[in-house]
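Please think about what follows:
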Amino acid sequence: MPNRKPNDAVETTGRSEPHFTSQCDFTNSIGVVPSTVRRWINQSWLDEPLDIGGRKYFTNDMLRRFKERAARGEFAGACKPPVRLPGQNPRDTWKV
C-alpha cells in the first residue's frame, strides 16, 4: 500500500456536492413546507425519498429530474376554485 498524506484525495468525481440531500434541506432550499413535498411524492411528481437511518434523503439525480420537469412546465395547470355543494353554507363549518 503506498504511503499517503492525510490530505491526499482517494478518488474524486469532479463534483464537490454531496450525493444525497435531506428532505428538510430540500424543502428549505425551495421554500416549501414538508407537507407540500409529501403531496408531490403522492402525485408522483417527485420520486419517493430513500430512508437512511429513519431520515428521508433524495439523490441529486432525483432532484435534477424533478427540477427539469418543473422547468418544462409538466406540473403547471389551471387552478380550480373549490366548489360549494348545493345547500352547503360556509358558516356551518365554523360552528363548534
Summary: Residues 60-72 form the longest helix (13 residues). The two ends are 75 Å apart (CA to CA).
